[in-house]
């Protein structure tokens, strides 16, 4: 009997094994990974006050924006307030001490939870309404509604603990706000540039102020960034 068929089978199996090993040894091309995960994000900063009606409007518009281009952006809230040694807690907020508390609640949520939780938390506070922002019970309800574990996440301790952590977050946020020369709530920065301000009316919005306008700007800035950084 000829051994040729057996030799062909053996050679075929060897070749298959070599191909499999080679394939496993070839490093994955950076272009074959999920580009959206590795691509640099477009920074967005919203300069706001937690009890400001103009901030409510901006945040409602950006809720629409995030639903469309959320994976392309890094979102930050920074708060408009003033350091004041003679004020309660050493900080003055335009809409009173409860706004300072609301600012702290949002900063605590942002620090101790991912955006898919802290952003709904902010939206929930806005839905609860002006009078309830800054109230711990309201923050608790919104944390639960947003999937934030009050105790395990660190949000509860940040809000209800010694108050030092929350106050420190607000002090740092005020410094950040001042570094950007933000004085109005709501001020919208996209890609490091001031794009629009809502101050009773829309001002300095050369490229528009709708969700569609902001999505267009974000997509343009996103395309400018190098995915192979």
UniProtKB/TrEMBL annotation:
What's in the keyword line of the UniProt record? Glycoprotein, Secreted, Signal
Q: Subcellular localization, per the record?
A: Secreted
Family per similarity comment? Belongs to the GILT family.
Q: Keyword Signal: yes or no?
A: yes
Write the signal peptide boundaries. Answer: 1-23
Gene Ontology MF terms in the entry: oxidoreductase activity, acting on a sulfur group of donors, disulfide as acceptor
GO cellular component terms, semicolon-separated: extracellular region
Q: Which Pfam families match?
A: GILT
Record-given protein name: Gamma interferon inducible lysosomal thiol reductase GILT
Q: Keyword Glycosyltransferase: yes or no?
A: no
